[in-house]
Design goal:
The protein has 18 helices and 12 strands. It is of the alpha/beta class and about 450 residues long. The longest helix has 17 residues, at about 210-225. It starts with a helix and ends with a helix. It binds uracil.
């Protein structure tokens, strides 16, 4: 087999065989196929797409390109949740301990900040001592101990994705549903999951803002995971505003911890509700709840009775973190500079450019400008409003935390302009009668039947 023949086939929309896809993936993992040929093939895929059979073959070949984790000797059903990324998305810190408290194992392989979205690993590493780079044996030990572990990809798990993802990043080929599906699922399937809940975001802060595109990706993920033997469901969820009130690193963990302690607030009800819906499906697909509704009740009980909080703190300690920082979360929050953004006019928040808000959070120091840069655990933003709120002149809109005043100066106008479309302009629109119904947090549930209807339409 020669890579050039396979590039030509995909370029000319002729499907590749399973053996041909395995050849390309093995060549990527071993770095025996030159980068320019892999990049040309990726661009052919980006432009022409792949058939469902090809996507399935690509996912499985990538899954099998390195070592795999087998959670089954530990004796429990293994489930996970994957989100396609958003701003303020801290549901992992709630759903993983809830599922563990209900008797499941959650071996969660997570990522770092990407584009305008925050990284689960970066947030966890704001806890002193917390280790995310565990070996597979250490992952098994952490699961035995806490029931849930949130770790980074090991060097020998799905090496093909490491090579292909880096090439996609440099060749404008990230935005391909086929490649995104294979990249996400190869890593999740290599963790040996029995069931997977996919949180596919839509709206102004999502990677795929167009609901039809998000729906197609969700269907592709569900159908491919099911075909690979992992029970899967996707929830299409709202990302038209940050999830909860905090976006950053430490402040997101502290917000999740508040909900685990049953400290509720109007600004975090969307986060609580989404976490419970995701956990409900994890419990149902994991076989410990006979319906999503009973899964929801069990998840709520795990929050109310403190068992999820207990699993969370055990998980922090099992991965080397110091759980004592959660005794006084506010005292631990030590940003170098803080700024309170005040509304200069009265009006109603009618919409938010959530991607811009995510970039502001990254610029404050929560994310990186170049690979391997350290992030600031204390950088971020607390938002004091929800879309639809009436704001009075002089009211605090947001509190920004940064590593330096230079970063603060860069982020403030981004936040201001992300809200300028929000009609903060004066009295005529600032009436209760012009209220806005909030978008439902879960917009659609895509199961196997719905996925097949979408893919065949
Ligand atoms: N996350 C991944 O792991 N891969 C993609 O291609 C996109 C998001």
């Amino acid at each position: 087999m020669h890579p050039i023949d396979l590039i030509r086939k995909t370029r000319d929309r002729q499907p590749l065989t399973d053996a041909e896809i395995h050849f390309l993936v093995a060549g990527a993992a071993a770095q025996s196929i030159p980068a320019e040929q892999l990049a040309a093939w990726l661009m052919a895929v980006r432009l022409n797409g792949l058939t469902l059979d090809e996507i399935r073959s690509l996912t499985l070949a990538m899954r099998d390109s390195g070592v795999r984790f087998d959670p089954h000797p530990l004796g429990k059903t293994a489930v996970d949740k994957h989100s396609t990324g958003g701003v303020g998305d801290k549901t992992s810190f709630l759903v993983a301990p809830i599922a563990a408290a209900c008797g499941l194992h959650v071996p969660m392989i997570s990522g770092r900040a990407l584009g305008h979205t925050g990284g689960t690993l970066d947030k966890l590493e704001s806890v002193p001592g917390f280790q995310t780079a565990l070996t597979l044996d250490q992952l098994a030990a952490a699961l035995r101990n806490a029931g849930a572990a949130i770790v980074s990809q090991t060097p020998d798990l799905v090496p093909a994705d490491r090579v292909l993802y880096a090439l996609r990043d440099r060749t404008a080929t990230v935005e391909s549903p086929a490649l995104i599906c294979a990249s996400i699922l190869s890593k999740k399937l290599a963790a040996g999951l029995d069931a997977l809940v996919l949180d596919v975001k839509t709206g102004s802060g999502a990677f795929l803002r167009d609901p039809a595109e998000a729906e197609y990706l969700a269907a592709l993920l569900v159908s491919t995971a099911n075909a690979a033997g992992t029970r899967a469901i996707a929830l299409l969820t709202d990302m038209s505003q940050p999830l909860g009130s905090a976006a950053g690193n430490w402040i997101e963990l502290a917000e999740a911890h508040n909900l685990l302690r049953n400290q509720r607030s109007r600004l975090t009800e969307d986060l609580r509700s989404l976490s419970l819906h995701l956990a409900a499906w994890m419990l149902h697909l994991g076989g410990v709840a006979d319906s999503p509704a009973s899964g929801y009740s069990r998840a709520e009980a795990a929050l109310a009775n403190g068992s999820a909080l207990d699993r969370f703190l055990v998980m922090i300690a099992a991965q080397g973190g110091d759980p004592a920082v959660f005794d006084h979360p506010q005292a631990f929050h030590r940003p170098a500079v803080t700024h309170s953004l005040i509304a200069s006019r009265s009006g109603r928040i009618t919409a938010q450019d959530t991607t811009a808000l995510g970039w502001a959070v990254q610029r404050l120091g929560a994310g990186r400008e170049v690979a391997d840069q350290a992030v600031d655990p204390h950088a971020g933003i607390h938002f004091h409003f929800r879309t639809g709120d009436l704001i009075a002149q002089g009211q605090p809109l947001a509190t920004l935390y940064a590593s330096s005043s230079v970063q603060l100066a860069e982020a403030i106008p981004i936040v201001e302009s992300a809200l300028t479309g929000s009609d903060l302009t004066g009295s005529e629109s600032a009436t209760a009668s012009s209220s806005i119904a909030p978008a439902p947090i879960v917009q659609q549930i895509i199961d196997a039947a719905r996925a097949s209807a979408i893919l065949n339409s």
